[in-house]
């Protein structure tokens, strides 16, 4: 009766382990519940600039050349490309785990059995048997030679290995989206720096023009001083204004150099001249700057795609972690030649083969598996929140870009009117000063106001372009 009971102990223990594993195998997925608005504020056009290639969105050939140069030499681009290769190799690795692992094996060894061991007595007794000839007599010590193939194959009973492959493939796609994200970001950085450079060039022209005007004004006031119509105080005030404007020139030159260096860095160069049209006023962007509908963010923005794919990968990881509680079946077949004499290794009688199947289920390491499952679930929640954050950030960036273009355009129009009025005021101040009805401080103030307005106008035009570039990036353009 006891023997009969022992017969069922092992199957019962194994069945209990399987049941315990199944208890932990519950379908769990991490999902993001986020609903985008139907439209962006103030935008109803469904034609998105995200679908415009770089060469259609940007019309400046110098800028296009910079972007093309960066795509082949920028370190971030090259690094992102290698991350794609790493993810691709990981997909191949996980796909290979579904197949038998076969290895060619050649080994040799020797063993001396003790005289009072089972093998020692058995080998000694066997050599006296009349049923064996000289070839079959066992030497002492006993060599062992094997040449053949050995294999190990885990049968994917529950889809654990398939889930790992799905996770790896999702991360491969995410790495491709990450590569596109780097392209989009790099395109935007180059365009922003380029338009900043054009604006600085324009500022430098304005400053030089004003330096020339102020130098003439200083000469006039000096002549008037000699004639008794002006004081030394007026001369010093005009001199101070001129020196201030000249200092702006060198500050602007430094900013130009730093911006050129930034563009060289982004394009993978050291100190290469940056070809450009030196007037931001001649730069143009597409006439229609539309963001499309918010749902297109999910299709166009590489960072949203990457976050979504990472979420899919984490769900596959959860399935893998849960299926780790279930039993795994491993087959270990082998075939080859095995003999205790090297001269007999390739004898037909030395051919050997076999297969062993093993079914294993976790028992004592279940706490580690539970901890791994909890970690995976927590990481999946992080992926959900990251996905939601990416969508919210994208919506905000698009809204900022759309409103920035609209508001800066209105600001630019008003600044143009302001500059026109200030130029008229300066002309009137000069006329009044010549007839003695205005003092030199009014001329200095008028000149300073014109200079500031001209610089503001150039900066506003730059902000219009930067808003357009930001919008292009925000809707996911630039990587096609």
UniProtKB/TrEMBL annotation:
Pfam families: OEP. InterPro entries: MdtP/NodT-like, OMP_efflux. It is found in: Cell membrane. Residues 1-20 form the signal peptide. It comes from the Bacteria. It is a lipid-anchor. SUPFAM superfamilies: Outer membrane efflux proteins (OEP) (SSF56954). Keywords: Coiled coil, Lipoprotein, Membrane, Palmitate, Signal, Transmembrane, Transmembrane beta strand. Its main location: membrane. Residues 405-432 form a coiled coil. The keyword Signal applies. Belongs to the outer membrane factor (OMF) (TC 1.B.17) family. This is Efflux transporter outer membrane subunit. It comes from Mucilaginibacter roseus.
